[in-house]
Amino acid sequence: MSVDLKQFHQVFFEESQEHLDTMEQLLMTLDLQQPDAEELNSIFRAAHSIKGGSGIFGFDALGSVTHVMENLLDRLRKGLQQPDTELVDGLLKAVDHLGVLLLQYRQDEVIDWNFVAQATSHVETLLADGVSQGSDKDKSAPYGLFEDPVLPDRAEEKWGLFEGIESGPEKSEAFGFFEPLPGAIDGAKESAESEAGDSAFGFFDEPASGVVAEELGSSSGEKSGLVAAPGKPPAPKSVAGKKMPGVSPTKMVATESTSIRVDVDKVDKLINLVGELVITQSMLAVLGKDLDEQQAERMQNVLGELERNTREIQESVMSIRMLPVSFVFNRFPRVVRDLSAKLGKDIDLHIEGGNTELDKSLIEKLVDPLTHLVRNSIDHGIESPKARAAAGKPATGRVTLTAAQQGGNIIIGIHDDGGGLNRDRILSKAEENGLSASDTMSDEDVWALIFQPGFSTAEVVTDVSGRGVGMDVVRRNISSLGGRIEVSSTPGQGSVFTIVLPLTLAIVDGMGVRVGDQTYIIPLVNIVESMQPPEKSVKTLGKDVLLHVRDYYWPVLPLYQKMNVKPDCVDPEKAIVVLVETSKRRFGLMVDELVGQQQVVIKSLEKHYRRIPGVAGATIMGDGSVALILDVESLASSVVDPVNLEEIA
Amino acid sequence: MSKHVLVVDDSASIRQMVEFTLKGAGYSVTAARDGEEALSLCKSNTYDCVLTDQNMPKMDGITLIKSLRTLPAYSRKPILVLTTEAGDAMKAQGRAAGATGWMVKPFDPKSLLDVAAKVMA
Q1: Residues of B numbered 5-44 whose beta carbons fall under 8 angstroms of chain A's beta carbons: which are they?
Q2: What is the 3-state secondary structure (H, E, C) of A359-414?
Q3: CA distances for A192 relative to A185, A188, A380, angstroms
Q4: Per-position b or e across A595-627, b if 16+ CB within 10 A of its CB
Q5: Residue A436 class from Cβ within 10 Å (0-12 exposed, 13-18 middle, 19+ buried)?
Q6: Which member of A51, A164, A236 has the closest CB to residue B66?
Q7: Do the Cβ atoms of A177 and B66 come within 8 Å?
Q8: What residues of B are in contact with residue A8 (Cβ under 8 Å)?
């Protein structure tokens, strides 16, 4: 029977990648003074599993590297060799090598065997002196010897149990049976018979057991050895207790939860379909309005039900795509470790809120910008130990990654306790690079300069943070995800980069508003309240209109001006003002009418048309018309600065 | 009725491969991802043969075998250890635990079927 092993390759690749990640993570956190036995075991198991799988699927390059790694790890877990920084570094490097090989297999590339040899010998050098290759081979030989005294003392086991297997005695044993002890039963005869064949597996016989003898008597010689069962089972309890001392069950349970692997495309298709379902449902709602009263009521009930179910389906489907941010965060201990070694800075990395969940596509696209920001914090942010000592700070710098959900947004922060952004240097650099800058700019505006293309504040260009081409790319990447990046900084105390991302990319709860013959959607998360402005609460100041509500002057932005459409009314007191709030500002949007609250599916405008300022995307309404979804954040920038307003007030 | 085999391995690719191979040869197969899961499966089901990996989280193969041998239903059932460690110590452990035999990874589908046929004959 031939089995096409290819079909299992994908699973093997994914599984191996997970094992590599596990190894890296555990190696990073390994306590060198008192290595945790279960952690060492887990690292060993990971290497072991890759080796086992690569053997079966014929990925020999992976197998040969993991093979030597396994020997080393086995020595570590048995306490024969003590881990030190050098060794951990070496193992991490080996993990990297495995990652490269895995990718090559994955992409069906030709394996560079020189590289494999290097990687293998690299691990071999890590083995403590005195560990000869001989004993090394012994431990991992693909066959083994019985301890049974009956057996001749040689390397190959030759049993006759599988005479059908054509292979010479030179071929190593890949399985075997345990023979009964000499004299106990007539199994010895069988072992003699089997000398000629190659033993590719083995069976254990219970030594001198009555049960065995009985079974043997009633069956043929060849089978008898196989069905032999132990007459007296050993007590397992004490062993079980001893073997698993440091296992923390919760940790294991968390990683071993019942799950299936699904192609992301399938999930994406589901999400698209749910999007269409949301549209269909709002179309039904529109149809329902035309029915007579009695039917309309029944229709409303059913529609309510449909809406609830649709919402639940949508939430469930979205949650499939959600991954904890720790997927990105967990790569940083390694980045920080490598960088701090390279730069001679001592850095503690703290991670908070790793369980915060984010859409998978966002997670993947976050990797590059976040890596850049973390590198930047370490390279430019954290000072050298000398400078830190001079400033009276602890020599060890601190970088903190945080993630948290805030309403419909995910907030990711990169904090460092370094020197903070240097206002003067940024300004002079900006001038050098021909960017418009002046000494009177607010700090916020100065910080924003670092996101301009071609800006670099590092006095020496390093290979760590690149050539200053990064920050503008970071900002562009993040805004392409529908998010934004902000920076705040205190001289001498450090900087905080904050990335604000939408929770999902596909569906948003919004309020439909009408201006003239157009409908716009305002995301619900931005809306504070909507009102018809009370008389006398509207003030005008030059060209600007202000609305005095709840002890605050809200600048009013007439949406018809921004969108260039003809409204029904231009007088704020007759129109509706929707009060909205963004991270920076609060203001009012003047519209003609509220249409109603609903879920809308975001369709990218850029993909189908082009980017429009102030518009985040488009959606299809229940009646089939297209409505634009407003980007309240970017509209905020065309509103009068609230600081100036307060002076007026 | 086809023979029912329990495959225990923490590696999904190996589980799938063994499962596929055995199913292709007409066995019914159940898979467990560690010793603990296998043991609880064995307490509620009777399998004709157990193929178990040695290195697994939570409960390793040897412990599983020892535990299974205390169950009356499994005192004589064939149990094979799949292992990459073919050393003497490993075999002695397997024997002491009451395993019927061992099989060294990597193995090819054909020898897997050979062994399965032998132990369940």
Answers
A1: 10-14, 16-17, 20-21, 24-25, 33-34
A2: EHHHHHHHHHHHHHHHHHHHHHHCCCHHHHHHCCCCCCEEEEEEEEEECCEEEEEE
A3: 13, 6, 74
A4: beebbbbbbebeeeeeeeebbbbbbbbbeeeeb
A5: exposed
A6: A236
A7: no
A8: 13, 16-17, 20
Q: Which of residues 203-232 of A touch B (CB under 8 A)?
A: 203-204, 206, 211, 223, 226-230
Sheet strand arrangement including A615-620: A593-601, A507-515, A518-523, A626-630, A615-620
Phi, psi of A401 (to 5 degrees): -105, 130
B79 — contact with chain A (CB < 8 Å)?
A: no
Pair of tokens at residue A186: 């007539």
- What is the tens place of the pLDDT at every residue in A46-74? 888 888 888 878 888 888 888 888 888 88
A359-410, pLDDT tens digit by residue? 887 888 888 888 888 888 888 888 888 888 888 888 888 999 999 887 667 8
Cβ count within 10 A of residue A586: 17
| CA–CA gap between residue A36 and residue A23 (Å, rounded) | 14
> B4-116 maps to which CATH number?
3.40.50.2300
As to burial, measured by CB atoms within 10 angstroms (0-12 exposed, 13-18 middle, 19+ buried), residue A540 is exposed
Overall pTM surpassing 0.80 (yes/no): no
Substitution target in B84, B108, B120 with the highest count of A β-carbons within 10 Å is: B84
Intervals of chain A under pLDDT 70: 1-4, 128-258, 407-408, 454, 456-470, 504-506, 583-584, 640-649
Return the SS3 of A21: helix
The verdict on A145 touching B (C-beta cutoff 8 Å) is yes
Going through A503-625 in order, the beta strands assigned E by DSSP cover 507-515, 518-523, 527-531, 538-541, 544-549, 552-558, 576-581, 586-591, 593-601, 615-620
Best residue of B103, B104, B112 to probe chain A, by most A CBs closer than 10 Å: B104
Domain regions of chain B by residue span: 4-116
